[in-house]
Here is the input.
Amino acid sequence: MLVLLYILHHMLEMPHVLVGAAIATAIPNPAISIPLALASHVLLDRIPHWNPHFYTETQKYGQPTPKSTAIAIVDSAAALTAGLFLAARFLPNYGGAISVIAACLASVLSDQIKMPYFFFKQRTGFFKFWTNLERSWQVEASFIPGIITQILISLAALWWILV
Ligand SMILES: [Zn+2]
Here is the structure.
């Protein structure tokens, strides 16, 4: 449960994780794929998207609402499952599987850093700085178009991996 809370997010985590997995699948060298996965996070956050409004809710109610938290848990659990599944395809090549998992984690790191801010009331210093920085590069969209962009990104990443 704590692990899931920890992986919660801003853009939904699923597209981030699929793109991370796609990068590691295309580029076997983790010294290249992990930095690229880290960078892909910012790039994807710049594509107009919808996500639960953790920040607004935290300002209003002191923490994200149960509904947003539930969406985030389902999304994170699904993203985690997808990442592990895509990594398992490399077995018995353990190096390959581990670099996929590492790239998946790197792809959502930027969001994970914000979790103490939202869920553990760490709202000063570095966590405040990072949460505001992450907010500054987000490009948000309303629900339907903001979900469609993420489905398209996810499908493109899956196509890249599986086809
Ligand atoms: Zn983000």
Notes: Residues 46 and 139 are 5 Å apart (CA to CA). Residues 10-11, 41, 45, 110-111, 134 surround zinc ion (CB under 6 Å). Confidence is low (pLDDT under 50) at residues 1-10.
